[in-house]
Amino acid sequence: MKFKDGFYVGLAIFALLVTAPALAQDAKMLEAAKKEGKAVVYGSLESDSANSIFNEFKKKTGITVDYWRASATKVMDRALSEYRAGRPLFDVILTNDNPMQIMFKEGIFAKYESPSAKDFPQNAIDPNLGPRYRNVVIGVVYNKSAIKEADAPKSLQDLVNPKYRGKLVMPDPTQHTTTTQWVASLEKLMGKEKAEKYIRDLAAMKPILVESLLPAAERVVTGETPIAITYVKYAYIYGQKGAPLDYVRLGKFMGDGHYLTLSNKAPHPNAGKAMIDYFLGPESMKMMAKLGEFVNRKGVYPPLADADKIEFVEMYDLGSKGFAQKKKEYQQIFLR
Amino acid sequence: MSVNETAQAVETDVSTAWGRSRLGAFLSQPVSWVFIIVGGIIAFLSLYPTFFLFYGSLTDAPLGVPGHFTVQNYVRAYTDPEAYPLLLNSFIFGFGASGLSIVFALTLAWITIRTNAPYRRLFELTAIVPNILPPILVSISWVMLLNPSNGLINAGLVQLLGIEKGPFNIYSMPGLIFVEGLILTPLAFLIIAAAMKSMDPSLEESAKTLGSNEFGIMRRITFPLIRPAILAAATLNFVRAVESFDTPAIIALPARIEVFTTKIWREALGSFPTNHNLAAAYGVGILGIALVFVYLYRRFTSQVESFSTVTGKGFRPHQIDLGPWRYAASGLALLLLIMLVALPILVLILVAILPYYHVPTWQTWQNLTLDNFRYVWVTPRVHKAFMNSLFLALVGATACMLLASLASYITVRTKIAGRGIIEGLVFIPWAFPGTAMALGLLWAYVDFPVPVYGTIWIILIAYVTRFLPYGLRAVTSTIIQVHKELEEASIVCGAGFMATFRRVMIPMMRPGVMAGWIILVTIFMREFSATLFLYSPGAEPLGPLLYFLYLDGMRGRVAAIGLVISVISIILIAIAQRYSRWDTK
């Protein structure tokens, strides 16, 4: 045996020695998970995306996932209420960065390092919450039947052009938390001074204000309002159904990250862990990307034109005081 | 012991003995035990979550965290000068919507019950249908019909009349009032129609004999007789409008009209993180306003009841012969029902068969799809939700009506001291805004010694707690018409309380019980504001499922499920009516 061969054999034995306990541990954990039978997840990921993954997980492991879907705020409300009352029914929480950070500070999560986390870029791993498995990207979506491509806005600055007055819909930044965050984070793209002026100009356009990002997109889909500030993924999701939508290539897009983490009082801890492992794995991430989601695994993109050219900028984490202050400030600007 | 002391002791003994014998006599009656048990259940259901809401409003920490006593939540909620103009907006909205619902309901009730207009029986049955549709779907349907850019009616009128812009704008205070008015009409119709049906025709006949014409009879006899019912329906609907959030969220927000509930949302429930303590303080304030109106409502309904007790015999008010105008009356009823039922349901059908919602063009008809109905057919999650909701609707409505029947019997038929409190207690959970009450229920039952949290039973408790007033009102209005002689005859013949209740009262109350049951089943099939906070994953009913599909932008699926719920509810109503003689009462 040459030295080189010996080296490789040694390396293989070493790798086996290192990974064998982990694999054995994984198998043990999976066995325990199967005995628990189900995992309970509270989350704000859209039901279709979540259920397609959970169904596949069930096919592979026999473990059922009971999913309670609500808005990020409601997920946090329920999880914290149950936890504080000593009756947590959930194993895993799956939602946006801000509420996850608050729940982390309340001490409701367990530290679980999933083996699937290693495939995520280092800058997408939060030391407390684990991998930021997807980004929800906010941009400008428009209806191609109502506005020709040449006449469509080309940048955020274009949105405040008087020719788009009455044609823009966006969630109410004094009510919708993610939009409050988006408006407050504009300075990350424009600088403080420019952003402040831009926010006032945007308000002066008297955009139609709606409850959240989805109703904004729906108005573009129906053609009621041709341009919306909303999630970029809707251009793909509704486009699949035949709606004539496109999005403005802004280059830099702001958005929020999504995480999933295990509860430290999980009634089914092993099933929860097994679900996290599968959820962060390559198969489920590809499945999610196919449904239009911007997942964070390298080289996996949603089937949306130019998705690979999108440069993601994470929005500010405002904290509860910051939100209250900004909402008050925007009340003066947007509702007066 | 002095003579005086002895006399005093004897007196005390006598009064104690008398007290004991009174208590003994009270407890020896089976009806007293029913009072204690029913009163106890209702007091618990009503006061337990209410206590938690009050407690939450007076503390500075969320549920489960030890906090300090504070009135800061009230100070913050009610010293904000902005709150009062919004309260005024809410009152304008409430008065407008409630007033409009009364105009619609009164017109429909009069045509269907008092005239000889053709197809009136069909119209009467159809008028209940809107109660089946989730209010949020009705609001969305009207946005699709009347939005200024491409609402179907506006677009149609633009094409038809060659005008530049559609004449209607849903995003306005009149638009808001119009949609909420339509949503509130079925309940007003049920109350007013019941009063019209139970009117003694002899008064009108006397007036006719004395030479009054139909208009004079209507003005001087009919209207004064049903006025309490109108006022009762108006106050009830006013409270419902002021507390509603769905319609303002969909219509007022884009119109930049703020009402009190949208403010509560921004400041407390929609804030990040949610401020439950502030929300509870707002809820208590709204409870105060609502209780004033509930008090008025009770006064008005007690007048209705005093009018209704003229006789105990069955009768039907005489029908006014409208001559050739009867076709115009049918036309008017039809127009109202087109607005109330046909248009929203047509929009729902359209949304359900389009791949995505848009104003239909010729090309649209080639792209129609049944995918959304297929989704309903093949998805186990939907089947499970239907089963859960059917269970909740059937068991919940039955339990509610059983409790309501006993409570109603006690309040109307017995002279037990404190019986009036039962009805007051029933209305407290109803007077809270839905989301605030859900919060109270969550706080109350999350750590309850009997582990109901996380099971379907907590939703059942929530439904009975919140919607008992509907059942109580329906059955009370019937019980009042049952003459006491029937019951007395049963007792004279030797039947006890339970036998009389079972063999005389239940059959006689059946129309009211079934009417209440129908209202409750239609509400329970689609309820979501309380359910959302309380249901456990894996036991999802239809209300939350609809809400989540709506949240995920699946309008087509929401519409398809909404239509299937409507069909199931109509089948349940038809079965219930077969057993109730409700329509011929």
Describe what you observe in this structure.
The complex is a heterodimer of chains A (336) and B (585). Chain A folds into two domains: 177 residues, D-Maltodextrin-Binding Protein, domain 2 (3-Layer(aba) Sandwich), CATH 3.40.190.10; 147 residues, D-Maltodextrin-Binding Protein, domain 2 (3-Layer(aba) Sandwich), CATH 3.40.190.10. Chain A is 45% helix and 19% strand. Chain A contains twelve helices and 13 strands. In chain A, β1, α2 and β2 form a beta-alpha-beta unit. Chain A starts with a helix and ends with a helix. Chain B is built from 24 helices and no strands. In chain B, α15 packs across α24, α17 crosses α19 and α23 packs antiparallel against α24. Classes of the chains: A alpha/beta (336), B mainly alpha (585). Chains A and B meet through β1, α2, β2, α3 and α4 of A and α12 and α23 of B.
